[in-house]
Design brief:
- The chain is an alpha+beta fold.
- The protein has a single domain, classed as Porin, CATH 2.40.160.
- Strands 1, 2, 3, 4, 5, 6, 7, 8, 9 and 10 form a 10-stranded antiparallel beta sheet that branches.
- Strand 6 and strand 7 form a beta hairpin.
């Protein structure tokens, strides 16, 4: 439980620092033409892995997921994700993230959700960070790292998201 508290505190601190930096940069330099551009909608295909170190030993598995984001402003977006993890897990997760875009291509997420595993549903809370590398005007590839908190344990989810904005 201490690890969960530390990770949550660290994520909150990084969010506070990032949001402050975003507003300070806007006041000092004004809005740039390119910095104001973003797609109102984006969908993504996530491919990666999940790792969890439990009191029973470690577990790992291949993860595949789909995500959607609707931008409310240059700073905030809301959406949803669905993810399946095989291997040692055989579980699926769904969530409703709040996305924060503090600076340029950085994307933070905070998401309450649900994890379904072995016939049981558990509350899930996900925090994550990603950086969108634009490969064209509509396509992006983003390395992504998330931590899922479920029933007092943490699972680390990492991989790449191929995103399409429209």
């Amino acid at each position: 439980m201490r690890t969960a508290m530390r990770v949550t505190a660290f994520a909150a601190l990084m969010l506070i620092i990032a949001v402050h930096h975003f507003f300070a940069a806007e006041e000092a330099h004004g809005a740039h033409d390119e910095s104001g551009h973003y797609h109102l909608n984006s969908v993504g295909l996530f491919l990666g892995g999940t790792y969890e170190d439990t009191h029973h030993g470690s577990e790992s598995g291949f993860a595949i997921g789909f995500s959607y984001e609707r931008r409310l402003s240059a700073l905030l977006g809301v959406g949803g994700f669905y993810e399946y993890v095989g291997g040692d897990f055989d579980k699926w997760s769904i969530g409703v993230p709040l996305f924060v875009h503090p600076y340029h291509a950085w994307r933070l997420q905070l998401a309450p959700g649900l994890e379904h595993r072995e016939g049981e549903d558990e509350f899930l809370f996900r925090i994550g960070v990603a950086y969108d590398f634009m490969i064209s005007k509509q396509w992006a590839i983003a390395p992504e790292v998330n931590v899922d908190f479920v029933d007092g344990e943490e699972a680390f989810v990492f991989g790449l998201t191929l995103g399409f904005g429209f």
